[in-house]
Structure formats: structure tokens, C-alpha cells
Amino acid sequence: MNSWYLVLDSELPNDICDAIIRAYKDDESQTGQIGDSSKNLDYRKSNVVGFPYGSRKAQWLNSFLYKYIVQVNAECFGFHLNDLHEFQIAEYKDGGHYDNHFDMRIDNRSSARKLSVSVQLSDSNEYEGGDFVFSEDIGTPAQHILRRKGTIIIFPSFIYHKIQPVKSGSRYSLVGWYEGNNFK
User: Fold this and answer.
1) Rounded Cα–Cα distance for residues 143 and 134 (Å)
2) Which residues contact 134 (CB under 8 A, 6 or more apart)?
3) Domain residue spans in the chain?
4) How would you classify the pairing of strands 171-181 and 111-120?
5) Residue range 26-36: average pLDDT?
6) Which CATH number is associated with domain 6-33+41-160?
7) What is the layout of strands, in order, in the sheet containing 44-45?
8) CA distance 65 to 59
């Protein structure tokens, strides 16, 4: 455990990872957007399927992750969470990437993203490149662990991170955000 993130090595079983990828393929994907809802392929190049709060698939995805969020938040962060959550499955193909960003929204909503979760859904031998990386001042966990199918990383939503360009193949990941009242 680093004070900025927690990595759970290969925690989700392969059959669940495969079911999540099937959920992506069963839906119609869209070009990934950035915070202001624009599509800038120089900044983010991926295809995504989103599952908003309250949707059946969001509840299904939450059933796999909620216990980890509760445990990690209690042991590491102590954020006040309000049970609002949303998810997105992303596919990064050749050249796919997401430049340095954080997941918090800076606006007038009464609820803010507080914890981010990313789950590696692909086998590491299915793609090259595409590494998940934190900014240099935080440090990044070992890539051989982050690239393992089923590995979960949980971190505060205000931490900058990125997905480096995929050189070949396809990288699938599940990302989610758990909210709470705005930080004070």
C-alpha cells in the first residue's frame, strides 16, 4: 500500500473479467470523451461503453467492486462516500491512449468523485504499450502487476494518471468512480 493508491493483484477472477468484456462488446461503444464532453483524439483515443448510476449494469459491476471500495476507503482514505457510482469499460486499440488527467469534476454539483477504481480486464500478452501510469511525483506500481488480468487499483480521484499509447493489440479496462459530498 502506497499512501496514494492500493493495488489488489489479480483480484477479480478471469471469468468475471471476460464477462465484463462481453458486456462491452454487447453494447454500442462511443468515442471516449474528456471532461468537458468533447472528443479530442490527440488527448484521448479510446472507445467506451458507460454505465450510469442506477443502471442494471452499474449495479452488476458494483457487486464485484463495492467490498474493495469500502475496505480500502476505511483502511486508507476515510472519505465520506454517498453510494453514487458510475462505470465505464474502455478499449484502447493501436495508438489508443489517454493523456494525463484526473477524474474529479470541478463544477457546482453537490456530489464529487472521490475514489477512482481501474480494473485490468485483458491478459498482458494481448497488447503492447498501454501502461497505466501515475505522475512522477506519486510513482507508479510495478507494471508487471498492473498488467495482470483482474488487478484492481484504487486511488483518490484527484490524482493525475494516464494510459500510455497502445502499440498493438487491444487493452480493455473497467474504470469506476465513487462519489461523496464535495470536499470541504
Assistant:
1) 11
2) 4, 5, 140, 155, 159, 160, 161
3) 6-33+41-160
4) antiparallel
5) 81
6) 2.60.120.620
7) 44-45, 97-101, 161-163, 132-134
8) 10
